[in-house]
Design a protein that fits this description.
Blueprint lengths: L5 H29 L1 H11 L8 H23 L11 H11 L14 H22 L15 H20 L4 H14 L3 H6 L9 H14 L2 H4 L27 H8 L9 H8 L8 H12 L3 H11 L8 H12 L13 H6 L1
Helix pairs in contact: 1-2, 1-3, 1-6, 2-7, 3-4, 4-5, 4-6, 7-9, 12-13, 13-14, 14-15
């Protein structure tokens, strides 16, 4: 007759429940808070724009599926005691693959090295599971404490922490990609303020993020007052996703930009050509004027800027901050002897 040991059973249940809680909380927060916008881009690209990713529903479904996978693994391996956390490795591995979405997914999709890393990791894991299963009957910790602060509990939690760190380290943590993805998601919802808030304290940017910030500022009528609050990468050609631009949209429909301008290009043109065409179009949205002026400032073409400004900002209109700073700098050139310019001014951008 086998002795029934409620102490041993309760200890096993406690470890299982705690590991499940840690896994589900981490996975949900990771997907909902950190990966949601990147997953939205991935689903949009891979579905050809036919489906939309919902951060709440997506995080819940993926978390539950990965937890069900763990339950299936546990039912087969029956790993318990000190090695129960190993039943979460396949789920953590899939979460890692889901998190490793490259910024170039809209140009080329491939599983890359995962095609051989996943089988290799699973093979090593299977060997470890086999060893653990053969060692399990000889573990002598049945009489050890089995509560929340037991050695068995902390060994399992340590394994969970290691796997979570691997997910965080291997998953795509490119800050600019995440900033751009969040900015596009925000613009898609019409939330210009959130698009401008993301990454506002970071000095990292690229042509995509610069273009998205210009678009958000343009919709708010704040280009002339706030553009150089942010780091700028690219030229005037990158202000719009047109010919000659290195910037591109991954999630936001390009038609939403043309709708804001009140017109769209009918053939492949560069940004300056498109904006010039709008300058003679009476139905174009007024923000095209700020695009023209800011494009000249981005290109450091102060002579063209000084000639163009009066066309859109006559004496009767207040001149935005960065336009004033650019005019002052233009008046001083080429004999500007002022002290080292401070960040957040047009003079700083001009000289850097």
């Amino acid at each position: 007759m086998h002795d029934y040991d409620p102490h041993k059973k309760n200890g096993t249940i406690t470890v299982r429940v705690m590991c499940a809680i840690v896994f589900m909380v981490f996975t949900f927060l990771w997907l909902y808070d950190f990966q949601a916008d990147v997953l939205a881009i991935a689903q949009h690209v891979l579905s050809g724009g036919q489906t939309h990713y919902d951060r709440t529903i997506g995080a819940v479904i993926i978390t539950l599926v990965l937890q069900l996978l763990q339950l299936g693994v546990y039912s087969v391996t029956r790993l318990a005691r000190r090695t129960h956390a190993l039943t979460y490795l396949p789920s953590m591995l899939l979460l890692t693959v889901l998190s490793d979405i490259p910024p170039t997914i809209d140009q080329h999709f491939s599983f890359g090295a995962w095609t051989w890393i996943v089988p290799l990791v699973l093979l090593v894991w299977a060997v470890i599971v086999w060893l653990a299963r053969h060692v399990l009957p000889f573990e002598n910790d049945d009489k050890q404490p089995t509560g929340l602060f037991s050695r068995r509990m902390w060994l399992n939690l340590l394994q969970m922490v290691v796997m979570m760190l691997v997910v965080a380290l291997v998953g795509n943590s490119n800050s600019v990609f995440h900033f751009s993805a969040h900015a596009e998601s925000s613009l898609l919802r019409g939330d210009d303020l959130e698009a401008l808030r993301v990454g506002e304290r970071s000095l990292e940017t690229d042509e995509n993020l610069t273009m998205l910030r210009i678009y958000a500022l343009g919709r708010r009528g704040e280009l002339g007052d706030r553009l150089f609050d942010y780091p700028i990468v690219g030229t005037s050609a990158d202000m719009l996703p047109l010919k000659g631009s290195h910037a591109r949209l991954r999630l936001l429909p390009v038609d939403s930009i043309w709708k804001s301008f009140g017109a769209r290009p009918v053939y492949r043109v560069e940004a300056r050509q498109f904006l010039h065409a709008l300058s003679v179009d009476s139905v174009a949205h007024p923000m095209y004027a700020d695009y023209i002026l800011c494009g000249q400032l981005i290109d450091r073409d102060l002579n063209a800027f000084a000639k163009t400004l009066p066309q859109y900002y006559p004496d009767s209109l207040p001149i935005p901050r960065y336009y004033r700073e650019a005019l002052e700098l233009h008046a001083l050139l080429p004999h500007d002897t002022l002290a080292q310019p401070e960040r957040g001014t047009y003079r700083f951008y001009y000289y850097n």
